[in-house]
Write a structure and sequence with these properties.
35% of the residues lie in helices and 21% in strands. By secondary structure, it is α/β, with parallel strands linked by helices. It has three domains: 2-117, Rossmann fold (3-Layer(aba) Sandwich); 120-360, tm_1862 like domain (pyruvate-formate lyase- activating enzyme), CATH 3.80.30; 366-428, Beta Barrel (OB fold (Dihydrolipoamide Acetyltransferase, E2P)), CATH 2.40.50. Helix 8 (201-209) runs parallel beside helix 9 (229-237) and helix 9 runs parallel beside helix 11.
């Protein structure tokens, strides 16, 4: 979502003739978009500001603005502690960025915009012509979360759940398609909680699938509590909806899930998985895991590994519990850091084995790849398959924006290499 927000900030600032630059030393305004999910996010802000200070040591300083969730959570602290920062604005107020810049040009005092006004924000963004020009583009459809997991800062930095209108979203999706997008990734802190005038995520998926130039649809990030039957059916009925579901579970222990206030059990999670497999046998899953949550025993941890082995996630994103200020879990007794690290290493080792087996089975298989860009090496193109695997192919033909049948020849944990095939062997398609 940060990438989507950053792109919209670029679109906004163009209106006052501020254009992006790759050369920091040329910048008249430095905008840092931040995330507060993990520990040390605030430290990274100070580190980046230090880098800017160094670059402009003997020059007139640029306008410095911190946006995003760190600004929302710690805006006043940032302004007091680091005088080099001119303004902070939360994720629901960045639509006011131009006003902030213009005020700062007049040397006005530091500015704090951290109110929650998500309706006004999207009203302003709806007037923008989306200029991403990316083959795979993000589209924020929902923000905020009402689940209040005890470890999560999102309800406090992004506010309550808010869904945009389907009419607005279809309009923006059409604009993305006109700008060259072939794939739309629907974004939300709790994307499957999308509900606008009783229209759910599945309804939006069907509407966007009607856009001819959009060939693929994805969505992230989901919550098991809101994974409804109509969304499961959408995976059966909508060919453009990709057969990869990112569904964070966080733990394989019911005791820990309850302690986290996740509002679902392991059994309920597995029921969703099995329902999806039943209607779409080739579907795959990825997930997020928190290791070493307060109160997690080694038995709880083993249950998490058991769940991973049962589902066989093709991607598992795992982190040691990070205590975020302002959350209910912040003051809980922490798992011993050494033990937590040991568990993380064990978990990731098991996850990599599953991933290696899965990727090994792709060798000599045929997969459909949507190519997004050219890599540095001439005549080499980067794309992704239905399961979001990274694929690199050599071609004299310009592949950008095209979907090609590719035979996988070799690969590693991060990237697969392949070759274009002209004669299809339908029996050799990867599941």
């Amino acid at each position: 979502m940060n990438e989507y927000d950053s792109n919209r900030i670029v679109d906004l600032t163009k209106k006052i003739n501020y254009l992006p630059t790759d050369n920091l030393s040329e910048a008249d305004c430095y905008i840092l978009n931040t995330c507060h999910i993990r520990e040390k996010a605030t430290d990274k802000v100070y580190h980046d500001i230090g880098r800017v200070k160094k670059e402009f040591r003997n020059k007139i300083k640029p306008i410095v603005i911190i946006v995003g969730c760190v600004a929302q959570a710690e805006g006043e602290i940032l302004l007091k502690k680091e005088k080099y920062i001119d303004a902070v604005t939360g994720p629901q107020s960045y639509h006011k960025i131009n006003d902030i810049i213009l005020r700062l040009e007049k040397k006005l005092k530091p500015i704090n915009f951290t109110e929650f006004d998500v309706i006004e924000k999207f009203d302003n963004l709806n007037s923008l012509k989306n200029s991403d020009n990316k083959i795979s583009s993000f589209l924020t459809i929902q923000e905020g979360c009402d689940k209040f997991c005890k470890f999560c800062v999102v309800p406090y930095t992004r506010g309550p759940e808010f869904s945009r209108s389907i009419k607005e979203l279809v309009k923006e999706a059409n604009q993305l398609a006109k700008n060259g997008a072939k794939e739309i990734n629907l974004l939300g802190q709790n994307v499957n909680a999308f509900n606008y005038e009783n229209n759910k995520l599945s309804d939006l998926i069907y509407e966007i699938s009607k856009i001819r130039n959009i060939k693929r649809i994805r969505y992230t990030t989901s919550h098991p509590k809101d994974f409804t039957k109509d969304l499961i059916e959408a995976h059966k009925n909508c060919e453009k909806l990709m057969p990869l579901v990112h569904l964070p579970v966080q733990s394989g222990s019911n005791k820990i899930l309850k302690a986290m206030n996740r509002k679902h059990t392991v059994e309920e999670y597995l029921e969703i998985v099995q329902s999806l497999i039943k209607i779409k046998p080739n579907i795959k899953f990825s997930s997020d895991f928190i290791i070493g949550y307060p109160g997690e025993s080694y038995e709880d941890f083993k249950e998490t590994i058991d769940l991973m082995n049962k589902v066989k996630f093709i991607n598992s994103f795992s982190y040691i519990f990070s205590a975020r200020p302002g959350t209910p879990a912040f003051d809980l007794h922490k798992t011993d850091p050494k033990e937590a690290k040991t568990r993380l290493i064990e978990f990731q080792s098991s996850a990599e084995k599953i991933k290696s087996i899965y990727r090994g089975k792709l060798i000599n298989k045929i997969i459909n790849v949507l190519f997004e860009n050219k890599v540095k090496n001439e005549n080499m193109y980067f794309g992704r398959d239905q399961y979001f695997n990274s694929i690199i192919v050599k071609s004299s033909e310009n592949l950008i924006g095209k979907i090609k049948a590719i035979k996988i020849t070799k690969g590693n944990q991060n990237t697969l290499l392949g070759e274009i095939i002209t004669k299809l062997d339908e029996t050799n398609y990867a599941a």
